[in-house]
What we know:
The protein is of the alpha/beta class. The chain contains 15 helices and 15 strands. The chain is globular.
Amino acid sequence: MSAQQLLTKEETLRMREQYHARNVELFFKSQPLKIIRAKGQYMYDEKGEAYLDCINNVAHVGHCHDHVNKAASDQMSLLNTNCRFLHDNLVLYAKKLTSYLPEGLSVCFFTNSGSESNDLALQLARKHTGRRDVVCLEQAYHGTNTSTMEISDYKSPAGDALKSDWAHVASVPEPIRGRYAHLKDDPQAMTQAYVDEVKKLCEDCESEKKPVAAFICESFPSCAGQIVFPPGYLKSVYWTVRSHGGVCIADEVQSGFGRVGEKFWAFELHGVTPDIVTLGKPIGNGYPLSAVVTTRQIAESFGRGGRVYFNTFGGNPVAMAVGLAVLEVVEREQLQKHALEVGNYLMDKLRELQGKHEYIGDVRGKGLFIGVDLVKSRACLEPAVLETQHLLSKLKERHILLNSDGKFRNVLKFKPPMCFSKADADRVCSAIDQIMTEMKKLPREQFVNENLHLSDMVAKHLDAKSPRKRKLVDEHSED
Length: 479
């Protein structure tokens, strides 16, 4: 047994089952991996076997990057304390971070997770507007604390609507199965239908004398299935919310820091400037670091009445050193440009596969933030739920780690470390091609038998009142 592990894989799994809650999610639950080290875009199991990582957008500049590691180690050897002492790292990082943001977004609050950042963003919006209600999107994911769970429709099974009376859910503009997807031949009408839904929620709140404090959305919805907003959608929604007195919060926790290639932030793809931006995951390359950036006016509102804010670990010197190091690597290695070039290459390869395999219903994304919607056939566009899980399992056998998401967990999510290469893209696409070719020869019963546990997983995301969706669950259950 190597020095990097104290237990066998079997012992680790047994102890996890003993000391962890059963609903703490585990990748590849039936045959989980024990990962003991990682470097760049590769992860290594207890046997030293390498896996190509297409999952981890947290390891933004690559797992265990030497420059980031050294910055953390050097500062840790000197001091780590809270931000109520003066320290150069705090102000230097804030200056550097805000230099990437539009003018006006100039005041930083540092936290430890995306959940914390989004919770703080809600506090800022409410204090500034004197209001409480929030408009969010269907299938959104903003965190795991109480306030963010209530605006994370992704975490709410069908029939278990958000419990809060202050969170109002608008339909997400999903291109295949969205509420107004039937209008796709008239893109302007489809976009306007989604915008009008947000407008109606704002109007309904006003009529009930509880006007909206904020609209929050991921600038590039990920858990919903890597959704690319239609042109004009976000700009119109921001205008609508602001015309009703609310502020606009951009959740860049997953999509920021150059990942989308064309721009540094995903909200910039839509020509908008939010009032509050939340950051997390890639910001620290795996170190617990997150941030909220807002305007001076909103920040001053937050302090009205003598309110004081501090965060024990938010903005600590080690976190700030790590944050600076990550930005330095993004610049030095031109990772935004790299994401654009490799992302476009990967998208082209995936679209070539779409022309060959009926399973691929849609390929969408920007940079290295890509979704592949798998369907039973492009004629019916029914989500290929079981087939998707089969594909992921077979990729894992080929030492390629990929995940799926979306309402039916049928959208492949590509969000690898930004050092992911064209050669890696070739390897993944070749494997997908081979597996899909083999899948055509398999009886459907094989997919069902492999994934008997999935009927419950799918059912919790479905609207029981929808006959078409109900049929999908019954079909899986009966098989």
